[in-house]
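Lab meeting, item 3. Inverse folding demo.
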């Protein structure tokens, strides 16, 4: 199966063509990502109205480039997958409408994809990864632990009770005077720092559930950031923040691994989403996985942040099961992953 994927749920306009063979091997034939970071930088965050307008301007060109680079032609496609949510609704509508237009014009099936399901399968891009696995999804808007048994078959074990980890990175980075997006900038600043001198809140550590909380850390670190006087202070604080976030992610994943191991023999922890690009986060999770006898997998950086290859792959896996969406599928600004199956599986409507 060869599927064109479209992603427009936040501040990346992306298109990609992915081939999925019956044995589950996925090959990325092309992946084009246009980041809007420059459009939003002056505002310190994503402005929904600017994002939607930029998606309108970029989607046709980005798609044309992805199609040209893939070299398969529209006749070589078996379907079109577009993110239908969750995300900024103005942006989602652009990619979804464009996907519907391509589907209608070329008489192709449309698959409306949950953006989080895209992140969930991103580890399977370019290499075989068997289901089931335990997934830590850490992005700009989400922080969840999921038991992933297959496409459209996922259970949430835990989620954040306030902010997402990426949000915490971004807000604290802003307080430290760093640009948007804050996560990568904070990681660079932390390189020369030694966080040992700061005692930051340790929310939920050791608690029996698998939930997260970052708002206490965010408030405490932001206050400390405004009191920083030297570059040294800022680097030390950045290191402390990064360590604290990584520790909480590992502690909660530790709980989830223990619960997961009671149900499954295939012990694999996968991390996905933009925050998975952070090297301290990866190393801390890898150590936690090893302690629990879990293998650990983090997708290449390019598949961690938003891209359309993961949407194309999720769409292809759905198509393989015969799950096709209605051509009038609605954009869904909110869309919990547990409900993702219902949209296209008639048996679950
Ligand atoms: P969602 O998928 O929840 O809708 P999103 O798509 O905006 O949100 P992603 O693109 O997956 O999120 O990830 C962006 C987030 O990842 C931002 O919060 C960014 O700061 C964070 N991030 C990216 N690189 C790093 C890094 N090296 N260290 C820490 N955080 C990072
Ligand atoms: Mg983004
Ligand atoms: Fe995302």
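The presenter then showed the designed sequence:
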């Amino acid at each position: 199966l060869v599927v064109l994927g479209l992603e427009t749920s936040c501040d990346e306009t992306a298109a990609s063509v992915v081939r999925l063979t019956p044995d589950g091997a996925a090959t990325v034939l092309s992946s084009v990502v246009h980041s809007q970071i420059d459009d939003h930088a002056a505002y310190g965050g994503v402005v929904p109205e600017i994002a939607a307008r930029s998606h309108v301007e970029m989607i046709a060109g980005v798609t044309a480039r992805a199609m040209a680079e893939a070299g398969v032609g529209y006749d070589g496609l078996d379907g079109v997958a577009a993110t239908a949510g969750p995300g900024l609704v103005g942006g989602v509508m652009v990619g979804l409408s464009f996907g519907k237009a391509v589907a209608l014009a070329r008489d192709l099936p449309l698959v409306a994809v949950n953006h989080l399901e895209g992140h969930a399968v991103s580890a399977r891009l370019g290499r075989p990864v068997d289901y089931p696995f335990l997934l830590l999804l850490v992005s700009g808007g989400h922080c969840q632990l999921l038991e992933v048994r297959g496409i459209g078959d996922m259970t949430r074990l835990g989620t954040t009770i306030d902010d997402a980890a990426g949000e915490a990175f971004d807000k604290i980075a802003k307080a430290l005077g760093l640009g948007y997006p804050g996560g990568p900038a904070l990681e660079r600043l932390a390189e020369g720092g030694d966080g040992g001198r700061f005692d930051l809140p340790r929310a939920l550590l050791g608690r029996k559930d698998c939930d997260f909380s970052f708002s206490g850390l965010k408030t405490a670190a932001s206050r400390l950031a405004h009191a920083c006087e030297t570059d040294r202070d800022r680097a030390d604080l950045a290191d402390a923040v990064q360590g604290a976030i990584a520790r909480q992610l590992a502690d909660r994943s530790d709980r989830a691994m223990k619960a997961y191991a009671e149900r499954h023999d295939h012990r694999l922890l996968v991390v996905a989403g933009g925050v998975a690009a952070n090297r301290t986060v990866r190393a801390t999770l890898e150590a936690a996985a090893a302690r629990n006898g879990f293998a650990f997998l983090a997708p290449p950086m390019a598949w961690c942040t938003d891209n359309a290859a993961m949407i194309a792959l999720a769409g292809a896996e759905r198509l393989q099961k015969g799950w096709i969406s209605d051509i009038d599928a609605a954009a869904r600004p909110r869309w919990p992953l547990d409900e993702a199956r219902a949209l296209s599986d008639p048996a679950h409507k």
